[in-house]
Write a structure and sequence with these properties.
The chain contains four helices and no strands. By secondary structure, it is mainly α. The protein has one domain. Helix 1 packs antiparallel against helix 2. The relative contact order is 0.13.
Length: about 140
C-alpha cells in the first residue's frame, strides 16, 4: 500500500527538481539561442535534453530515493522509460493547449498554467507507477 505522506513528500521534492530542471532547460536554451546563435529548435532541443537528464538524475537520487527501482540494473532502459514518459507529457501539454486555447477560447497564459499542472501530475504519477512504485525494504 502506498503511504500518502511519503508520496506527498516525493511530490514536493519533484516540484523542486522540476523547477530546477526547467531553469537549466530555459537557461541553456537562451544561451544557445542568443550567445551561440543556434537555431531556436536546436537550442530548444539542447535545453530539453539537459533538463531531462538533470530531472532523471535528481529524481533517482533524491525524489524517489526511498523506492525500489525496477530497472536499476538497466540504467539505459530506465532512462528511456523516464524520457518516453516526459515526451508523452510534452504531447499531452500540446494537446491541452490546443483544446484550452482553440476549442475553449481560454487565455494562453492561464491555459499554459493549467496544462503545466496537469502534465506535472502526469509525469510524476506515471513515473511513480512505472519506475518507482515499491518502497525499499
Amino acid at each position: 500500500m502506498v503511504e500518502i505522506k511519503g508520496v506527498l513528500a516525493q511530490l514536493a521534492r519533484y516540484l523542486l527538481v522540476g523547477g530546477f530542471a526547467f531553469l537549466v532547460d530555459f537557461g541553456l536554451f537562451a544561451f544557445c539561442l542568443y550567445v551561440l546563435g543556434l537555431h531556436y529548435l536546436l537550442a530548444n532541443f539542447i535545453g530539453l535534453v539537459a533538463g531531462l537528464v538533470l530531472n532523471y538524475a535528481l529524481s533517482v537520487r533524491w525524489v524517489f530515493s526511498d523506492c525500489k527501482r525496477r530497472l536499476e540494473m538497466r540504467k539505459s532502459a530506465e532512462f528511456a522509460v523516464f524520457a518516453v514518459i516526459g515526451f508523452a507529457g510534452v504531447a499531452l501539454n500540446e494537446l491541452l493547449m490546443v483544446f484550452l486555447v482553440d476549442s475553449l477560447h481560454g487565455q494562453e497564459m492561464i491555459s499554459k498554467m493549467i496544462a503545466a499542472a496537469v502534465v506535472l501530475m502526469w509525469n510524476f504519477g506515471v513515473r511513480k507507477l512505472t519506475l518507482f512504485r515499491e518502497k525499499k525494504d
